């Protein structure tokens, strides 16, 4: 969740979206969204009549484990404070323990560690994101996407169970000043992992648009391999002759593409822009929007960095001083040039994520050891996601 860096001890797997209805404006710089209360109330009613009954809707991906609320209470020690990992718009995240073979709750310190995300009961928007998470992560498997293990849909309780990411979010490591800075090689490996995840999503026939790429939604395993989390805002991209998807504007200020903010027109190139912002954060060590700067001047990282990015002689001025100059100068210049391409104001002039990944692997990371490409995947489930017949009303109809 976006607040995890404010609570260093509770950093692992603390990630969630920032767009619950009725939340106060915070340092996360939420974008204003259209009112959807009537839609969400209708969705809530139909959901209670279908999925949250004695029988789970058969269209929910069968590879997911259906947990009872009692099981997850036991797995998290009744959601006690010592298992708390973080909080966001969706709700709270807790550490839990499950038997590796049966997935039954077990004693702390035994079995496998999981992250249990519990939806706030009053959050209509969170309910909608819960549906999206089940819909997408329940069908997709990729080495750079956080694995969804199961869910709970019992009475008024809605929870999600994920693999545990012990190093927490990129946000925590990149902006928490008292920790050792991430080395240059690790930063570029993370950029490549994120590009792989996005390339996979964009390469599906359904052309999935992630829509909420930011440092707090990039989680790290024990070896600092990066995975995308929080698919609550994801949605299918344009199909056929359509050039975009028209939707309400959601996301996080500083990361969202300007044309999407202005028009609500969503394309895969919207994710490319957000990736450019994250790449800038990796280079500079600065936040996309920093409310802690003097005089609270609303200048985005992109506004600040662009004058330097266009001049190879000045581009090294944006580099994170905490790196102490320990980085490849040519690699940094190449990464900055790539970021500038991703941040082009005209989305048509931005590269695709496949092109971004190629550039990172070939031109920037020659001196950076990378993790092997994740093996692809479960083709059967990819076909399910790609199929135009994927019309389960209980877990789709997302704006």
UniProtKB/TrEMBL annotation:
Binding-site positions, ATP: 117
E.C. number(s) listed in UniProt: 2.7.11.1
The keyword Magnesium appears for this protein: no
Recorded topology in the membrane: Single-pass type I membrane protein
Subcellular location as annotated: Membrane
One CC-aspect GO term: membrane
Protein's name according to its UniProt entry: non-specific serine/threonine protein kinase
An MF annotation (GO) of this entry: protein serine/threonine kinase activity
Class of the enzyme per the UniProt entry, highest EC level: transferase
Species the sequence originates in: Manihot esculenta
């Amino acid at each position: 969740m976006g607040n995890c860096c404010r609570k260093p001890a509770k950093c692992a797997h603390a990630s969630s979206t920032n767009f619950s209805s009725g939340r106060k404006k915070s340092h996360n710089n939420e974008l204003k969204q259209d009112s959807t209360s009537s839609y969400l109330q209708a969705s809530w009613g139909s959901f209670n009549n279908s999925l949250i009954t004695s029988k789970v809707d058969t269209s929910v991906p069968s590879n997911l484990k259906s947990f009872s609320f009692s099981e997850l209470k036991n797995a998290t020690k009744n959601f006690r404070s010592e298992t708390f990992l973080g909080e966001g718009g969706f709700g709270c995240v807790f550490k839990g323990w499950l038997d590796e073979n049966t997935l039954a709750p077990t004693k702390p310190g035994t079995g496998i560690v999981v992250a249990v995300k519990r939806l706030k009961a009053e959050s209509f928007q969170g309910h909608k994101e819960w549906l999206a998470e089940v819909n997408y992560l329940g069908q997709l498997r990729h080495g750079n996407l956080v694995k969804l293990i199961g869910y709970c849909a019992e009475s008024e309780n809605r929870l999600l169970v994920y693999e545990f990411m012990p190093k927490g979010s990129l946000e925590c490591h990149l902006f928490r000043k008292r920790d050792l800075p991430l080395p240059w090689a690790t930063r570029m490996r993370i950029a490549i992992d994120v590009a792989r995840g996005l390339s996979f999503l964009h390469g599906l026939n359904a052309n999935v648009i992630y829509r909420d790429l930011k440092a707090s939604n990039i989680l790290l395993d024990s070896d600092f391999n990066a995975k995308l989390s929080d698919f609550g805002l994801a949605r299918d991209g344009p199909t056929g002759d359509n050039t975009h998807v028209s939707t309400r504007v959601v996301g996080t200020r500083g990361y969202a593409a300007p044309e999407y903010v202005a028009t609500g027109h969503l394309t895969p190139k919207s994710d490319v822009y957000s990736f450019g912002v994250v790449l800038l954060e990796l280079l500079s060590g600065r936040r996309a929007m920093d409310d802690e700067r003097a005089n609270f001047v609303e200048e985005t990282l992109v506004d600040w960095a662009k004058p330097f990015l266009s001049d190879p002689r000045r581009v090294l001025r944006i580099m994170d001083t905490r790196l102490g100059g320990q980085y490849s100068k040519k690699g940094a210049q190449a990464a900055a040039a790539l970021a500038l391409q991703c941040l082009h104001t005209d989305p048509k002039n931005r590269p695709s994520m496949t092109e971004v990944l190629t550039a990172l692997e070939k031109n920037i990371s020659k001196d950076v050891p990378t993790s092997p490409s994740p093996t692809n995947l479960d083709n059967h489930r990819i076909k399910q996601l790609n199929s135009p017949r994927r019309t389960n009303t209980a877990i789709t109809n997302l704006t």
